[in-house]
From TrEMBL:
It comes from Sulfurihydrogenibium azorense (strain DSM 15241 / OCM 825 / Az-Fu1). SUPFAM superfamilies: Thiamin phosphate synthase (SSF51391). GO terms for biological process: thiamine biosynthetic process; thiamine diphosphate biosynthetic process. The lineage of its organism: Bacteria, Pseudomonadati, Aquificota, Aquificia, Aquificales. It catalyses: 4-methyl-5-(2-phosphooxyethyl)-thiazole + 4-amino-2-methyl-5-(diphosphooxymethyl)pyrimidine + H(+) = thiamine phosphate + diphosphate; 2-[(2R,5Z)-2-carboxy-4-methylthiazol-5(2H)-ylidene]ethyl phosphate + 4-amino-2-methyl-5-(diphosphooxymethyl)pyrimidine + 2 H(+) = thiamine phosphate + CO2 + diphosphate; 2-(2-carboxy-4-methylthiazol-5-yl)ethyl phosphate + 4-amino-2-methyl-5-(diphosphooxymethyl)pyrimidine + 2 H(+) = thiamine phosphate + CO2 + diphosphate. PANTHER family: THIAMINE BIOSYNTHETIC BIFUNCTIONAL ENZYME, THIAMINE-PHOSPHATE PYROPHOSPHORYLASE. The gene is thiE. This is Thiamine-phosphate synthase.
Length: 204
């Protein structure tokens, strides 16, 4: 299990629950290192069986299973970790509750915030959006220079997100991104496994 490579994130519309496990397995076969469940609407009770199956699937492929926002759900299903942002539960409390698990924190365009989050125990930080995101159209665009600035001062891995495609990710990886987090470009691909393999080639 590694904090490097392709990080795929589920989406209530693009990975509907009746197709999600099949689609995620294709991404894992294609080499995804991390899978995040991102669901803003459904109840924990509805999500628990999916989380358990996703976690088992991830572990079969030596990948990491992360839950977005919902720390209590992550704990209930013993996920490998959580991802939180500015509007989510407090980082210090989350670190306390999720000792031994991976904690990823969104830092948007701020290296200063990333340094603080590293200090508070984040295992990786995420910057973005780098391009207009079909999933989060209101997300602010941040300059690519934040990646190289972050890499100069951070010890923990840097994840990039927001409007990423195979074509536009190469430049971000060359600037130092350790993880490339993707929703639309992976799940709308005609062949999800092949699309993931294309991302993996960018890291070689
Ligand atoms: C890997 C990764 N990076 C960033 C985010 C965004 O988190 P956040 O800002 O909390 O926004 P929401 O995803 O919760 O809408 C993420 N989920 N994953
Ligand atoms: C969940 C998320 N967070 C973002 C941020 O900028 O912090 S952008 C984003 C959505 C990423 O989806 P897509 O690959 O479809 O653009
Ligand atoms: Mg969040």
């Amino acid at each position: 299990m590694k904090l490097k490579g392709l990080y795929v994130i589920t989406d209530e519309k693009l990975t509907p629950y009746d197709k999600m496990l099949d689609m995620v397995e294709k991404a894992l076969k294609g080499g995804a290192s991390i899978v995040q469940l991102r669901d803003k609407n459904n109840s924990d009770e509805f999500l628990i069986p999916y989380c358990n199956q996703l976690k088992d699937l991830c572990h079969k492929y030596d990948a990491i299973f992360i839950v977005n926002d919902r720390v209590d759900l992550a704990l209930k299903v013993d996920a490998d970790g959580v991802h939180i942002g500015e509007e989510d539960p407090d980082v210090v409390e989350v670190r306390e509750k999720t000792k031994g698990k991976i904690m990823g924190v969104s830092c948007y365009g701020s290296v200063e915030r990333a340094l603080q989050m590293q200090e508070l125990g984040a295992d990786y930080v995420a910057f973005g959006s780098f391009y207009p995101s079909p999933t989060k159209p209101k997300s602010r665009i941040v300059p690519k220079s934040v990646i190289s600035e972050a890499k100069k001062v951070l010890k923990i891995p840097v994840c990039v997100i927001g409007g990423l495609t195979v074509e536009n990710s190469k430049e971000l990886i060359d600037l130092g991104a350790d993880l490339v987090a993707v929703i639309s470009d992976v799940w709308t691909a005609p062949d999800v496994e092949k699309r993931c393999q294309e991302y993996l080639k960018l890291f070689k």
